[in-house]
Specification:
about 450 residues, alpha+beta, Arc Repressor Mutant, subunit A, seven-stranded mixed sheet, about 40% helix
Length: about 450
């Protein structure tokens, strides 16, 4: 899996330039609406740069207030920008964009026309002869699975069927660009899933009647399942925060490797509007590669005490003898031994535990030095702690709800074990002063917020 952050005009940061032709490009697009009674203007979009290349699906992802639909309408030529330029297939967009067909959230069917008549509407407006209109409409209707409903009226159709008519009406135009404005949000969950899968299958099969697609959505699953690029918009005013290139193979499923890691990073970006998107996305590959080996449930004080006992015995000790002396089951002792080994403080061979040089230094150090050693070893050798610290640093506030980390761990462990893993990580991280934990708010934060934005 490869996931990269690209610049807003389509070039990939650190990647080979994409040689495919640009079908649509926006440069410096701004949009403001005048307020009543001459009370100034309200800025909806500010300095938008984006590019849509041939053969790709691009998703505009943002919360309410980010100007997604306004931007879509500017790109379609339905409303003009206040400033900036939109170029479609090499020509400036100065009115309705002839290269674009649209699918709307509200279906936008004319109730007095049949399915076939609704599908033919755009062709009729372009003066296409009647027989050609009929043939192309019937082909599009069949493609979206509505064969047999040509003479039905919209009132006879379910929501999913109405949206299929909307797709057929766009498909029949065979546009270079298909715009889809929240196409699944007005449908029930099962219908939306079915229609989303069919759109993905058409695209993957090379049967799609458009050369590129722009999908406007607030749904992260829609974006990750369908898009090659996800443009993340910020709000108030709408602006491009970053663009994510997704190289998951098609057809895509939620259970495929890398899917949840990408979704988690985008979710983190969406829920932390001040976070640096580039740093969040840079962590995706690390999370995809690291399936978080389980932490041994051992408190730092217990690990430290064990190391001191071994040090007192010359730096090496038989494990069975040590367990008997401490009156511990070997399994209980192994939790502390595994923690010492994970941190690089000890080695275990032939039934004996031996301190490493850094383990001996940890035992002999004063409290401040031992904390520094523990901090260094934890960041270097414990991926979960490194992930938590880097995630906190990706937020300008240097803080995150513990629930987010629990959601990530749920992908690796059963629910009870995920909670225990987080508890152990929090205990180790607090000792090392990597982060602090507010139990009342169930929130982790960096001890010094000035560290935010600098990955470990």
């Amino acid at each position: 899996m490869a996931v990269t952050l690209t610049n807003p005009v389509g070039g990939s940061a650190g990647a080979v330039a994409d040689a495919r032709p640009v079908l649509l490009q926006a440069t410096g697009v701004c949009k403001a609406f005048d307020l009543p009674d001459g009370n100034g203007a309200f800025t909806v979009l500010q300095d938008i740069h984006l590019a849509i290349r041939e053969g790709e699906i691009v998703a505009l992802l943002g919360k309410s207030g980010s100007g997604k639909s306004t931007l879509l309408r500017i790109l379609a030529g339905l409303i003009p920008p206040s400033s900036g330029l939109v170029v479609s297939c090499g020509k400036p967009v100065l009115g309705p964009n002839p290269d674009v067909a649209m699918v709307f959230q509200s279906f936008a069917l004319l109730p007095w026309l049949t399915v076939q008549e609704n599908v033919e509407l755009g062709l009729k407006a372009r003066g296409v002869p009647r027989e050609e209109r009929r043939q192309r409409a019937l082909q599009a209707i069949d493609r979206v699975g509505l064969d047999g409903f040509e003479s039905a009226y919209p009132k006879e159709l379910s929501g999913g069927m109405k949206q299929r008519v909307g797709l057929a009406r766009a498909f029949v135009m065979q546009p270079p660009l298909l715009f889809m404005d929240e196409p699944f949000s007005g449908l029930d969950v099962l219908t939306a899933e079915n229609l989303r899968s069919e759109v993905a299958d058409l695209w993957a099969a090379g049967n799609f009647p458009a050369r590129s697609v722009l999908l406007v959505t607030h749904n992260i699953d829609d974006a990750v399942l369908l898009a090659d690029h996800v443009i993340i918009l910020g709000a108030n005013p709408g602006h491009v925060r970053g663009e994510v290139h997704i190289d998951l193979p098609r057809p895509r499923e939620r259970t495929m490797p890398g899917y949840e890691q990408i979704k988690d990073a985008i979710y983190l970006a969406m829920t932390n509007p001040e976070a640096d998107v580039q740093q969040l996305i840079a962590g995706i590959d690390r999370r995809a590669e690291t399936r978080f080996a389980p932490l041994p449930h051992a408190r730092v004080g217990g690990v430290s005490g064990l190391l001191e006992l071994v040090d007192e015995r010359g730096g090496a000790q038989d494990i069975a003898e040590l367990a008997g002396e401490l009156n511990l089951d070997t399994d209980d002792l192994l939790q502390f031994l595994d923690a010492a080994r994970l941190l690089g403080f000890a080695e275990i061979q032939s039934g004996a535990v031996t301190l490493t040089p850094v383990g001996r230094a940890f035992v002999e150090a004063d409290i401040l030095e031992s904390k520094e050693l523990f901090r260094r070893q934890a960041l270097e050798r414990v991926p979960l702690l490194r992930f938590i610290v880097n995630t906190l640093k990706s937020s300008k506030r240097g803080a995150m709800d513990a629930e987010f980390f629990l959601d990530v761990l749920d992908e690796h462990f059963p629910a009870d074990e995920a909670r225990r893993q987080l508890e152990t990580a929090v205990e180790w991280g607090r000792y090392a002063e990597l982060f602090e934990y507010d139990a009342d708010k169930s929130r982790l934060r960096l001890p010094d917020e000035s560290l935010a934005g600098a990955p470990a």
